[in-house]
Amino acid sequence: MKTPALALLLLLSPALVLAQQEVDRASNNSPTPGNQQLERVSVSRTQTDTDLRRREPVAKQLYGRDELDKYGDTQLSDVLKRLPGINVSGGQLRMRGLGGAYTQILVNGEPAPPGFSLDNLNPAQVERLEVTKAPTADQSAQAIAGTLNIILKDAPRVVQKDLRLGLAYASEKPVINAGFTYGDRVVGGVGFVLPISVYQWNFVNETEGDRVRDKGVTGMSNVGRDRAFGRGFNISPRLNWKLDDDETLTLQGFFVQNSFRNEGENTTTVLFSGASSVLPQSLLDTTRNRGTFSANRVNLQYNNRFGEDRRIELRAGTGSGGADFDFDFFGRNKDGSQAIDRFTSGDNRNRNTSLSGKYSQYAGEAHTITTGAELERRTRDERRRTQQIDYRKTNPQLEDLLTGVEGQPFNATITRSAAYLQDEWEINKQWSAYAGVRHEQIKMASEGDGSQFTSTSKVTTPLLHLNFKPDPKGRDLVRASLTRSYKAADVQQLIARPTVNTDYEVRGPNARINTELAPDRMGNPLLKPELATGLDVAFEKYLPAGGLVSVGVFHRRITNLIRTDRPRLMTVPYADTQRYVITQINLSKATTQGLELEVKGRAGELFPSLFEASTALNLRASLNLYRSSVGDIPGPDNRLEGQQPWQFNFGADYRLKSLPINMGFSAQIAPEFDVRQSVLQSQTSLASRSLDAFAAMQVSKQDSVRVSVNGLFQPKQGTRVVIVGTPDYNRNEREPVPWWSVNWEHKF
């Protein structure tokens, strides 16, 4: 115990000051030994998140209502960014520093709907979060970095009526949020819960940047301001029907809808340019983006236990949703004259249906055999069109940016099927094992001008998880996992339809070759899925009063890595000149490994010489170190895209004894780092740090008030992309703002 306690003391020494004055005062009125013993007994009988984590057959981190409610967050992404080994960047969830499809997001064990954002879900509608770093057979193995499973709120055992009202402010004007949850158990074994949330947002970002292009011939700077605002609501009703002691039927709904609007102004000034440049000396860009998003899903689940040794679970689900948007761009010269107007509109519609079944049976006294199968079908219909008026032409008129491509419909059908078999084996009092194999097939078919393709990927993923108790009567665990996982290319990566960089005209007298820093993009229908072989080993020490010390290491070896190829100068049918175009290709291999440290617990248990056992101060800290290397890209810094070298989280929560007030803070720190993206291109990401804090007061038995702030002390965020061996670069930075909120909760 001395070693982890000393490590945590060094990591959290600033945090300990939070409660020192209150602790000193409370020490003069410390409880009697009998009272201390009574408190320990009460805690030991409570099923905490740590207790549930220890009982899981595979390594899994669980976070329940305490973590979800602590800061009064209205967006689930704010909860997630404070968890060990997780960060949220640009709305993307990243585990182990890896983003995109490396991290799998599930809602009640099923893939999240297309376009789903963590910002669309209020934590009040969530029962718990499950974070798994290594895949299991009964869930899709598209989880090289790990899986987040969001379990929606379940019907309560007793009547629940909660009302939450909140006011928040980040920029310009405050916004409101509200939530109401009503749940009860009624006659006939029927229980239900109806959580409803409505929310608004309003953010303003000040941006700046500069760039040099055309091999150092042209230099520009830009200053801008973006405002994003909107509103939305979500509902996740659930109905549980207990048919008898062993048979249940569950109906779960999940409905999200929001409307958004973005407005921006950006002034670009040409600092220097070549004699043949057609660029004006200054250009004012005004943008307007507005649209809607919706996702709707209904799931039906049937569970039955046949005797004491057999269980069956059947699921069926259907859903729909989509989005539409209109993006307007107005370019003006320094003197106010019109330069170019561009109008982009689009919409997409998604539909999905899924079926799954799982059967479990005890085999003797030591084995539980489970087998199952899944089938899912998704369709997507999409349309996009960009038109523009170029006032530099003799007869400016509204015309398609890409004739023959813009406005053409596109649709895709994705069929996913899977079958798996697993065995949970209690070998003896010290050893247990979880072995499984999963075979998954994904077939994509697309139709549309320039986007016809078919793609089929088949992956078999064997899995082995081992648990070892050094002391058969103790609580400590050593966990090890040897697994196979993968990442399949999504539809947008496969479509061979171009996305054009509009900084360089493609048609007419002003058509110019773009640059390597401003390429067009095109999908690659020949992409294969990435495959990863992973090893995870961790030691988890569970302390008597509920604390935890965890030390883990992991390694992933990835083949068929999908990475953006170097820009290539090509003759393309949609332009009057050659264009630089990038696409994604499969590289040979990559590796990533890391060290994960986590410590949390009561201050009195971690530092008994400094704090009384009854001191209501909880401490936590995590340090994650990451390394990676991409084989076909020269070093240094040839790491996986976006993976920071390290991440440090620390925080503390304290409950005052003199007043019914809880308070706490959580801080996240990550360094500046470079990533060599290709042979020619390198990107620098700026350092990040952030502080969240809250104070909550129980005003009465039914009422509580919570004040919180997210994102204090954040430095400028942004990137700098350079073309190796040339003076060309592109720098973009923005000034983030903190999010202040006050929330009132009433329990009826």
TrEMBL record:
Family note: Belongs to the TonB-dependent receptor family.
SUPFAM superfamilies named among the record's database cross-references: Porins (SSF56935)
UniProt membrane topology term: Multi-pass membrane protein
Annotated localization: Cell outer membrane
Name this polypeptide is given: TonB-dependent receptor plug domain-containing protein
Signal peptide (residue range): 1-19
Domain TonB-dependent receptor plug: 55-147
Bias (Polar residues): 26-47
Disordered: annotated span: 25-49
Classification via Gene3D superfamilies: TonB-dependent receptor, beta-barrel domain, TonB-dependent receptor, plug domain
Residues in TonB-dependent receptor-like beta-barrel domain copies: 246-666
InterPro entries cross-referenced by the UniProt entry: Beta-barrel_TonB (IPR000531), Beta-barrel_TonB_sf (IPR036942), Plug_dom (IPR012910), Plug_dom_sf (IPR037066), TonB-dep_rcpt-like (IPR039426)
Keywords: Cell outer membrane, Membrane, Receptor, Signal, TonB box, Transmembrane, Transmembrane beta strand, Transport
Protein's organism: Pelomonas margarita
Pfam family, one: TonB_dep_Rec_b-barrel
